[in-house]
Amino acid sequence: MARGLGRAAVAMDSIAVQGMLADSLASDGVITTWNEVVRPVLTAVAARWQLSGAGVEVEHLLNECVLAAFVRATPLVTSGRNHRPVLLACMPEERHNLPLYPLAAELAHRGVVARQLGAALPMDALAAAVRRTAPAAVVLWAQLPRYADPGVITALPRTRQQVRLFVGGPGWRRGVVTAPAERVEDLATAVEAVEAAVT
Fold it and tell me: pLDDT tens digit string along 28-38?
């Protein structure tokens, strides 16, 4: 499936890409599709671009198709298991928000209400969202190390109810993760951690 997806992306065949993603999501689910189909292709496309400087258009097409597929695969949760929402956001200035979409999709399949705040959310907006929603959990994504700023963790407002704070993404792998944040290494780990935090 991953090889076929890669060939379709290189051919700029968005219809084939969307069809393969839909088939994989229907047969194998969100986590397997992300880990075994999408991530290997994204990695290969990015490596090709780094080596040759070509293929940015392939990466953009693939990103858009993946985003659309996971949005379509996200059920609307009208009565969630959690009374307080989960906030999903990128670190300030971080624009790579694609991995938050499979996370939102899998959480929704498990009946967990999550609110997507998107890419490059300014610090003051993130703080305002935490104050206004009193979330059960917050997941902050950093793709690049320069955006994995532990100061953002310590600057988040304290609420009367405990907020579990998780950081994910390759940007955090070598960085300092300050308490009370916890690092989640992959999609499955993030889903389990957030699910445990809201139940």
Answer: 999 999 999 99
